[in-house]
């Protein structure tokens, strides 16, 4: 049982992804909240989840440019770091049953706003014709002193049916 009296279950979402499902019934519904965890993106380095699904949306925590296997930072340039961050976000989205084309909003955190143009080129290439809403802010410091961190919110793709619940 979880803290609110509901039954806790785990959902497996394909290639190394696990979601912990909390609710009174172990079924996909708009009132169910799933904690997303995948080995294909860096594990959380603090007391938070890689992503959470609720109400037909996936809320992805900020990703930084870490290799998911070695947990080492990747890239010396803003372009390299942005590319790794977006790759990590893509894997978290996939684990949650979504895709980059379903992203509705991103927030980009930059260590230096002078890196905006180079970051934006990689970002634009990644999303192509899809243009999610976005905020970009300069911050004093980011985890592990990286140059960029990106978080996003996306719709869950109804065409992806890879969630199976275990008792």
User: Given the C-alpha coordinates, what overall shape results?
Assistant: globular
CATH topology: 60s Ribosomal Protein L30, Chain: A
The CATH architecture comes to: 2-Layer Sandwich
- Assembly classification: single chain
Q: How many helical stretches? A: 2
Order of helices and strands: EEEEEHEHEEE
Sheet of most strands: 9 strands, mixed
Number of DSSP strand runs: 9
Compute the number of structural domains.
Answer: 1
Give the N-to-C terminal Cα separation. Answer: 12 Å
Characterise this structure.
- With 167 residues, the chain is of the alpha+beta class.
- The protein has a single domain, classed as 2-Layer Sandwich (60s Ribosomal Protein L30, Chain: A).
- 18% of the residues lie in helices and 33% in strands.
- It contains 2 helices and 9 strands, in the order E-E-E-E-E-H-E-H-E-E-E.
- The chain has a 9-stranded mixed sheet, with helices on one face.
- A hairpin with a 2-residue loop joins strand 4 and strand 5.
- Helix 1 packs parallel to helix 2.
- The longest helix has 18 residues.
- The chain is globular.
- The N terminus and C terminus are likely disordered.
Topology at a glance:
Blueprint: E1 7-12, E2 17-23, E3 33-38, E4 51-54, E5 57-63, H1 78-95, E6 103-110, H2 116-127, E7 133-138, E8 148-155, E9 164-166
Parallel strand pairs: 6-7
Antiparallel strand pairs: 1-2, 1-9, 2-3, 3-4, 4-5, 5-8, 6-8
């Amino acid at each position: 049982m979880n803290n609110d009296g509901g039954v806790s279950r785990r959902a497996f979402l394909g290639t190394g992804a696990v979601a912990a499902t909390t609710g009174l019934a172990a079924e996909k519904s708009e009132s169910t909240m799933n904690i997303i965890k995948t080995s294909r993106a860096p594990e959380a380095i603090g007391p938070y989840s890689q992503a959470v699904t609720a109400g037909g949306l996936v809320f992805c925590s900020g990703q930084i440019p870490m290799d998911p296997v070695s947990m080492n930072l990747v890239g010396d340039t803003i372009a390299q770091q942005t590319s790794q961050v977006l790759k990590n976000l893509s894997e978290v989205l996939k684990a949650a049953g979504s895709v980059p084309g379903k992203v509705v909003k991103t927030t980009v955190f930059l260590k230096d706003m002078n890196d905006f143009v180079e970051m934006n080129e990689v970002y634009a290439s990644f999303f192509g014709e899809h243009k999610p809403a976005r905020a970009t802010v300069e911050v004093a410091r980011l985890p592990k002193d990286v140059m960029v961190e990106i978080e996003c919110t996306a719709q869950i793709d109804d065409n992806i049916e890879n969630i199976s619940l275990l008792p």
